[in-house]
Design a protein that fits this description.
Layout (H helix, E strand, L loop, with lengths): L2 H28 L4 E17 L2 E16 L17 H30 L4 E7 L16 E5 L2 E2 L3 H10 L3 E8 L2 E9 L3 E4 L5 E4 L2 E5 L5 H28 L10 H43 L7 H18 L5 H30 L1
Antiparallel strand pairs: 1-2, 3-10, 4-5, 4-6, 6-7, 8-9
Amino acid sequence: MTVFSIVLIIIFFGLLIAIHEFGHFVAAKALGVKVNEFAIGMGPKLLSAQKGETLYTWRALPIGGFCAMEGEGESSDDPRAFGNKPGWKKLIILAAGAFMNFVAGLVIILIIMVAAGSPAMPVFTGVMEGAEAVLDTGLQPGDQLYTIDGHRIYFQTDAFLFLERGGEDVDVVVLRNGEKVDLGTIHLPYRQLTDETGQQVEKRGIYIGQFRENNLFTILQNTWYQAVDYVRLVWMGLGDLITGAMGLRELSGPIGIVAMAGDVGEAGAAVAGLFGAVINILDFTALIAINLAVMNLLPIPALDGGQILFVFVGWVYRLITRRKINEKYLGYVNAVGLCCLLALMAIVAVSDVVKLF
C-alpha cells in the first residue's frame, strides 16, 4: 500500500463528505432554514470561522461531518427552524446530501470514461477448445448479453458477476443485430478445459468482452450505466448481509476503505503506472460516492433516510391527531440511532485493524 494511494483516498473521502454536507447546506439556505454550524469531520474543532449566522468548522476526525440546522431534533420557536418548515422542504433538504454524492459519483465516472475509455461490452466472442457444445444453446458470436436470469447486463464485468452467481442453467436474452432475442434457459456447465497458457481450468468455456469505439453518446450512456451498476452492487451487498451470505467481517469502515484503496492503487500502478493508479482510485472513489448516496437513504435513525422516514411518520401523525410530534422525541430516537451507528463503526474499525494485521 503506497503512501500516495492512502493520501489520495483520504483526500477524496474527505471531499465526498464535504460534498454531501454541502448538499444539505445549500438546500437549507435556499429554502430559508437557519444553519447554525457547517462542519467537516467529527470530534474536536481544529479550525472555525463565524460568517453571518453560521459557524464553519473543520474537525479532527475525518469520518463524517454535519450541517447543524436550527430546530433539527429539538423544538424551536424560530420560524426559520428546520422543524417548522413544511414537509416538502424537509424532504428536499434531507435528500440533497445523497443527491450530491450521486452526482459526484457520476462526474467521477464521466472523467474516467473520457480519460480511460468505456469498459468492455458484454459481447459473446467465442468458445474455448472443448466447449463447442455451447454453440448449440443458440448463442452466436457477436451476440451482446442483455439479461442473465433477469438481471440487466451493461458491461463484461456484469456478465461475469451474474454468471458466477447463477447456476449451470441460466436464462439469457441477447441483443442480435439490434434486436432482443430470448434464448430461454441455456445450459452452461463448468468444464475442465485448457486455457491459453496450457493450464487446466474449470470454466464455462465462453469468451465475453469486446471494446467499442467511444463517442459522446456512448460515453454519457456508459457513465449512467456504470452509476446504475454501482447502485445495484450496493443493494446486492445489503441483500447478502441480510440473508447471511456476507458476514459482519466483510464490512469495511474508513480504515478498511483506505486499505482497499491502497490495494486498488497498487493494482492499477502495476498495469499502467501512475495513470493506472489514479484511474483505479478514482473508480473506487466513485463507487464509495454512490455507496454513500444509497446508504444514507436507508430508513435508519441518524441517517438521512431515517430523517425522511420521520417526516412521513410526522405527516401521518398530524393527519390522524391534528397535532405535531414534539421534536425532542425524534431527537431521542436519533440519539439512540447515532449511538448504535457509532457502536457499529467501532466494531467494524476493530475488524478492519484485525484484517490488516
